[in-house]
Design goal:
It holds the Pfam family HEPN. The chain is mostly helical. It is built from five helices and no strands.
């Protein structure tokens, strides 16, 4: 499988995570932690897809700050989403286990916005990653 096809697969899975997060908004009560987790997962997969597209093997990590640094090696434009990556990183672990403090709806809205910002930047600079079936 070529880099483009692999990158499109990463994008497809990222899009499914983001769509899942958006779908879960209709639940009552809203599963804030689960939505935040899906947002982190979506951003992680978009970043890894971009690395794959550019011939890099993405590290097997969930730290979006670290993934963003790898992307920065390819383009300085990733400085534009460094804050969003930082905001989302904790959601890779925190929402999966009962911990204090509990996440609130404003955290969820910020996570959704951050994940969409990561998606939008990557698909703007690498539109060929867009997978048509999602």
């Amino acid at each position: 499988m070529g880099n483009l096809k692999q990158a499109q697969q990463w994008q497809r899975f990222a899009a499914m995570d983001l769509k899942s997060a958006e779908y879960l908004l209709s639940m009552h009560p809203v599963p804030v932690e689960v939505i935040c987790y899906h947002c982190q997962q979506a951003a992680e997969k978009y970043l890894k897809g971009y690395l794959v597209l550019n011939g890099m093997n993405p590290p097997k990590i969930h730290d979006l700050d670290e993934l963003c640094k790898h992307c920065l090696e390819l383009s300085n434009i990733f400085n534009n989403i460094a804050d969003q990556c930082s905001d989302l990183t904790a959601y890779g672990v925190q929402p999966r286990y009962p911990m204090e403090p509990m996440l609130e709806e404003q955290d969820m809205q910020q996570a959704l916005n951050s994940a969409k910002t990561v998606r939008d930047l990557i698909l703007k600079i690498a539109p060929e990653m867009a997978h048509q079936s999602i």
